[in-house]
Design goal:
- It contains no helices and eleven strands.
- With 116 residues, it is mostly beta strands.
- A hairpin with a 6-residue loop joins strand 5 and strand 6.
- The protein is globular.
Amino acid sequence: VQLVESGGGLVQPGGSLRLSCTASGFTFSNYVMSWCRQAPGKERELVATISSDGSNTNYPDSVKGRFTISRDNAKRTLYLQMNSLKPEDTAVYYCVRRMRGVNDYWGQGTQVTVSS
């Protein structure tokens, strides 16, 4: 199993970024997928989850209305569109495979920094 994130970077408050995660080594379309993040000194936080067919999504209140998770099963790729970014969104963002409600594989992460 391999999950490779890309698309992180430095953005000003109020800006947008789109993260991508390319999956390999497993049947991507069979799995629920998530994005998680970890800020310095804080615990990891689940920020978005999407069903295997993309029909259902879920977000915590901290990002609801600003972040959108999506997937392209034909391309084996997971996305996270982040709008109206805030300094508190600064973190390393991870692509995560979920199995029976448990995060079982993680990517290496991509840094997102929101700062003026």
